[in-house]
Amino acid sequence: MLTDDQKAKFWRDGAIVINDVIQPEELDRLRGAANELSDELEKASVDEITIHLQELTTRNVAFRDLAKSPMLVSRVASLLGPNLQIHHSKLGAKPAFQGKGGICWHQDFPFFPHTNTSLVAVMVMLDDSTPQNGCMYVVRGSHKLGPLDHHLDGWFTSCCQEALPKEVIPEDESGLLAVTPLAGGISIHHCLALHMSPPNCTDLPRRGLIFQYRAADAHALAGSLPPDCGWQVSGIYDGHVRCEQAIWKLPKKFNKPLGVSEIGYGQAWNQLGAKAKDWNPPLEAVSKHARAVNFALPAGEHPSLPGLIEKLTR
Ligand SMILES: O=C(O)CCC(=O)C(=O)O
Fold it and tell me: How far does the centroid of ligand 1 lie from the alpha carbon of residue 276, in Å?
């Protein structure tokens, strides 16, 4: 369970850090399980970029046990209620030393919109997370902004493209929460928290196990789902869908020619009958939202904290 103070901090900032959650023997077991994935990480070029190796709960029973453990689930239940499912899970591995692996400013929700925003990610650190090795930074309070646009020229970019309202731009570094759990600690961040992480500038990798939880009444607006999506880790699923009154943009993934799987998460999003598809103007013509701002990180750069804030203001 979270304390009242932890809950208040989470709902104020959009994220919290809790140390000493995983006992040393369990941490060894999880590191051993993660080491077994090193070939896969290498195949995925972990020396070059941060790899998010998906389907973590299917890869080792140690990860499955952890996802369902009261250590994590009871804390998430303090925020989202007792009926909880996994949406997806992954190993996040940031490359060592070479100043690589930066992740631009983004929210998680626009990647996988649901009927409501009762989703949080728990990151369990296998290594200490520090500013030097590319810890996550969250714009405090940004989860209250609602979903921001991550599209450019009609295509989903993975990076927030929207200028923030003035009142939300941090005046100084205190407006950013550095998410720095030590190994065995966890962070929990809200699906709308605007966050990024700079490159790793140490000679050691930085690994975290990421579990995306959702309230059981949050339904994904998607037609194809991660393999562990919908796994009930606590409470019940009673068939109700809770819909928040708001406007979500569906991520139009990857710049492929129209008609060749332009919708990355399946066809349930399709709202066009066979004839209307021919009669309508091309999708680009109606969904183009080019913005002046792109929060992507230049490759190889380890920006200062004022530099990170500047990226939110441009
Ligand atoms: O690994 C990190 O530092 C950031 C992870 C992240 O941004 C995410 O999972 O959405």
Answer: 39
Cβ proximity of 87 and 119 under 8 Å: yes
Q: How far is the CA of 136 from the centre of ligand 1 (A)?
A: 7
State the distance from the centre of ligand 1 to the C-alpha of 272, rounded, in angstroms. Answer: 34
Ligand 1 atom closest to 50 (CA) = 1
Name the residue with the closest Cα to ligand 1, atom 1.
92
Residues 6+ apart with CB under 8 A from 204: 96, 97, 127, 133
- Mean pLDDT value across residues 84-109: 87
User: Which comes out higher in pLDDT, residue 67 or 165?
Assistant: 67
Q: Take atom 8 of ligand 1 and give the residue whose Cα is closest.
A: 108
Residue 293 burial (CB < 10 Å; 0-12/13-18/19+)? middle
- In angstroms, rounded to a whole number, what is the distance separating the alpha carbons of residues 268 and 94? 33
> How confident is the model over 99-156, as pLDDT tens digits?
677 888 999 999 899 999 999 999 999 999 999 888 999 999 999 999 998 888 777 8
pLDDT tier, 279 (very low <50, low <70, confident <90, very high otherwise): confident
Please give the helix or strand (H or E) that residue 65 lies within, else none. helix 61-68
Whether 133 is in the pocket of ligand 1, judged by its Cβ within 6 Å, is no
Q: Classify domain 4-313 by CATH number.
A: 2.60.120.620
Residue with structure tokens 């200062």?
304
| Predicted model pTM | 0.89
